[in-house]
Amino acid sequence: MSASAAVSFYHDLLDRPDLADDSWAILTARMAARGMVFGERLICTVLRPLLYTPPEWRFLAVRTELIARIFDRLARLMLEDDKLRAQIHATPEEEELFQIEQGYDGAIPTARLDSFYARNQDGTRSLSYVEINGESPASMAYSDVLGSLFLELPVMRAFGQRYALRTLPSRRPAIDEFLRVYHEWRGNRGKLPDVAIVDWQGVPTASEFQLFADEFAEFNISSVTCTPDEMEFRRGRLYAKGNEVDFVYKRVLTSELLLRYGLDHPIVDALRAGAACVVNPFSCKLLHKKASFAVASDERNAHLLTEAEQRLLRAHIPWTRTVEARATLDPAGNPIDLLPWVSANRERLVLKPNDEYGGKGVRIGWETEQGEWDAALARAVDEPVVVQERVQIASEAFPALNPQGAVEIDRRLVDSDPFLFRGGHVHGCLCRLSSETLLNVTAGGGSIVPVFVIVDKGN
User: Which domains does the chain have, with CATH numbers?
Assistant: First the structure.
């Protein structure tokens, strides 16, 4: 069974009278009803999910778990080794946060490994991971609910007559992981957490907080959504909107929290006092920073890895370096002077700020004029910025309705971003589509689609 044959069959179904119109009408209405919006935009703009065969999904999941375990070990090593940790360019405030006892094991209870997983015409696969979302990765709830909504569509019901469909939930595994670390933090299982979901007012992912609140309620877990301004720490207790809480689902980014408050915030006070379990912990920054990929791929750290781990990283992690005046090795292993080499090889490289999100500040070399590239490179020397080798970006044809109501099938760039729990177990996957090289919904465009594993019932 091939995924391409299933995709062709799905697209052919949309030629049936009214099937596309009816499916789109149902999808848009139910997305609006469930708050499936990113800011003010519906999160899905196409009429097909991403489809994987069982071997394809197994390959992605297994390789993701292997890579995640390498990074998890590197994070532990960085916590123990000041010189190694210096390679991620943490701020002094972040360094202080790293020293606070979090009360449970593991740097990243929940994470997302963002990748491009291309299916080539010759039957081969190309899989490249480009960064780790280690703060508190968004879209677990969006992806789950969107998968359920797609199963209700007439076109999916018609498709399901020929293909068995398996969803890839991640919201329930996230709750399981929250409970695991909470009970490890408390030292017993006698109590459920009182949760604060914390982020700024008006962030585009705010609608997902309610989806998580609904899931918490299914477990009889109380939760309150609040901003960092609506929290207090008094008499050894943490409060959110006046409600006592002992578990912080920290959706607010550490860098933004520190920018506003420094270390003077109730979450930090509660963590120091052992009064709250915080997920993800502040140590997540060890891997969330783009420079973690430089740590993994730099030849000066090769002694930390086995030969098998080095081969795995070379196969799936693009060559990455922090931008600085130094000698190093190029992707082929040849000695180079880094800055002149980066200037001369613009068309095969990307510049990324070390600690940004949503595509902010990213410079795509092959889409940038040489003068602009060199100016960005000069600025990068004074700021923590990484340079990363270009990877093969996956693309597939997806159907959408044009303004006249007709189905148009266009190629979209695709990234596949498995969610990780407990230091390296895959449950679920975010898929983002875009017509532009920078695949990021936060940047203002693109679409999320659910991911399904399919089996031909005739086989």
Answer: 3-287+394-456 (no CATH), 288-389 (3.30.1490)
Lookup: tokens for 237? 């207790």
Give the residue among 13, 8, 12, 25 at the shortest CA–CA distance from 157: 13
The pair of structure tokens assigned to 399 is 């159907």
d(CA 378, CA 351): 11
d(CA 286, CA 84): 11
**Exposed / middle / buried, residue 33 (Cβ in 10 Å: 0-12, 13-18, 19+):** exposed
- Written as six digits, the tokens of 12 are 């052919």
| 0.85 surpassed by pTM | yes
Q: Is 107 helix (H, G, I), strand (E, B) or coil?
A: coil
Which tokens belong to 340?
Answer: 């002149």
pLDDT in tens, 138-170: 999 999 999 999 999 999 999 999 999 999 999
* Distance separating the N- and C-terminal Cα atoms of the chain: 8
Sheet holding 277-279, edge to edge: 222-226, 194-198, 247-250, 277-279
